[in-house]
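Sample 1 of the test manifest.
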Amino acid sequence: MTTLVLVSHPQLADSTSQQFLKESLPDDDIIWEHIESLSSLDVAQEQAQLRRADRIILQFPLYWYAAPAGLKQWEDTVLTRTFVYGDHRYPLADKELGIVVTTGMPRQAFQRGGAEGVTLDAALAPLAALAHRAQMRWLPVFPIYQFGYLEEPEKLQLVVDYQRYLTQPQPDSLANRQDWFAQRLDGMVARLAEDQRTTGRLIASVFEQNREQIDQLHDTLAMIKEQDDD
Amino acid sequence: MTTLVLVSHPQLADSTSQQFLKESLPDDDIIWEHIESLSSLDVAQEQAQLRRADRIILQFPLYWYAAPAGLKQWEDTVLTRTFVYGDHRYPLADKELGIVVTTGMPRQAFQRGGAEGVTLDAALAPLAALAHRAQMRWLPVFPIYQFGYLEEPEKLQLVVDYQRYLTQPQPDSLANRQDWFAQRLDGMVARLAEDQRTTGRLIASVFEQNREQIDQLHDTLAMIKEQDDD
């Protein structure tokens, strides 16, 4: 799976959250592009890049309940009507569209009666409508609230969640999560130093055993639920 | 009342609808500004202009369910957090925010199940949230669908409706409409040629008689409704 990460931020170097996310990128097949760093928008090149990707991630800080002007400029220039839905051809159809949005406000602010008075989902309606028009699949939004206040364990969790958002097959089910972790575990063990590899293999084998147990529990639960439905 | 009309369009000269709206501007106290024509954004000057206005109109074509990048750039630059709600001062509080939005799609497209799959109100959620944050009063949106297909009588109606949207006191009640027309009628008659002025005065006096009759009917209706409530 190829993932295209389009980052929009007017001062990327000054953004600790964006630098953190850049360093958290997984080793997978990721194309990463910072829109404001492009000297000019090469429409054909940008469109070709979109065609190649299976998952497209728009990543930006929320400015006045929307992406920065740079991303809107990219939309207005690259996403020509002819490209997106001209002649009843939909080159972006069935690609996934994900939104990674950072905000300095807390989660509670984004609800009716909250300080912002609008949910993130409602604020992102224009991008959701674009996905709808292009026949893309809208992924649940990936919000990062108040990055500056995150503790170390929360940041480590953020790395894993972000990597999964970029590369894990949808839906975000237990089975898909397990597969995603299992795939990465072997690679992580291989990259360990010689003396740590035994410990790494042990962790991997415990993970594998747990996984089998969870599968069995899952099957048992499914059987119980089926009986309940009778 | 001072109205500030901020127009955002990347090619204003090529837009027949925007040229039409420009020619339709009323003679009232209107400040009209084309954002993309500004060589640079003078933040202090733009903010001072906002402070002076009682009603602020954002006028633009709908590109991907939002304003063009130019307006977003203006928002990201001019509307600093300190200006809009810093130190619990709200310089835009109680000012009215109106949206004049043109679109090449028909009215029916903007509903669930329609071609666009989103209402204009939902698409404009970010601007509504901005109004909420700034403690401004959100006016009902003024949409112009498929300007290119309007017939002459529809265009004449559009001129009047647009002028009212820019200058008529809210809410858009019968009484406020009548007052608005009455105020303009004298001015129109005064500008007529000598030989047409008698006809003009006749029209004005019929309008005034009708208005009194409507007021009486209104009072009668109110009495009947009050009795119904018993």
